[in-house]
Design brief:
This protein is α+β, with helices and mostly antiparallel strands. The chain is built from eight helices and twelve strands. 36% of the residues lie in helices and 27% in strands.
Length: 206
């Protein structure tokens, strides 16, 4: 797929646009299974640093907005982002695979697969993951200058007025986005006028 969606808060979006895409420490992740597999991989490979940044391959769903407690979705251009990542020796990446316990028992999984394995109930995420791994101790790692890698930003706001305010704030703070014709739109997942109008037409016909 040509896109990689990254869900975050509005303040997180501004930090990414200003400072870059920051890899996170997996020790704070809610999914303990995921934490344990990452730790097993880190220890088995002897890395002192293992950080990750996660994306979704699918279009927005209510799950993505709620689970990640997000009000922004940054759509990265997959080709452009991975072209940049390929030049970073310490980075590896790949799609996450989802298994049942029975499937895991009957599959030839190797150590290098562990950071890209999750249980089946998480498959709605359709996750893509980039890892930063190093034999040196580092507290953080950031991919700088990511605005040229972004195609679209979707904001989840309660009102059109709030959306317009945030859109203008982004365009003022980061004029490069407008120059690069990055689309900023409002999510219609929870309120879509066309959907509601179609329903009204159905009622009128009956």
């Amino acid at each position: 797929m040509a896109k990689l969606n990254h869900f975050t808060k509005f303040d997180g979006l501004k930090m990414i646009l200003e400072n870059g895409l920051r890899f996170s420490d997996f020790s704070n992740w809610e999914d303990i299974n995921d934490q344990k597999l990452m730790t097993l991989y880190k220890d088995a490979k002897g890395y002192k640093t293992l950080l990750a940044v996660c994306f979704c391959l699918s279009s927005e769903t209510i799950y993505h907005w709620m689970y990640f407690d997000a009000d922004c979705c940054i759509q990265f251009n997959r080709y452009k982002l991975l072209q940049k990542v390929k030049d970073i020796y310490e980075c590896v990446y790949g799609d996450v695979s989802y298994y049942t316990l029975r499937e895991l028992n009957s599959t030839n999984v190797i150590v290098e697969d562990l950071p890209f394995l999750k249980r089946v109930p998480f498959r709605i995420e359709e996750e893509f993951r980039i890892l930063y791994q190093s034999y040196e101790s580092k507290e953080e790692y950031t991919i700088k200058d990511v605005i040229p890698l972004i195609d679209k930003i979707t904001l989840r706001t309660k009102t059109e007025k709030e959306f317009e305010y945030k859109k203008k704030e982004l365009e003022k703070l980061f004029p490069e986005m407008k120059n690069r014709q990055i689309v900023i739109n409002r999510s219609t997942l929870l309120k879509n006028d066309e959907w509601i109008n179609k329903a009204n037409d159905i009622v009128k016909k009956n």
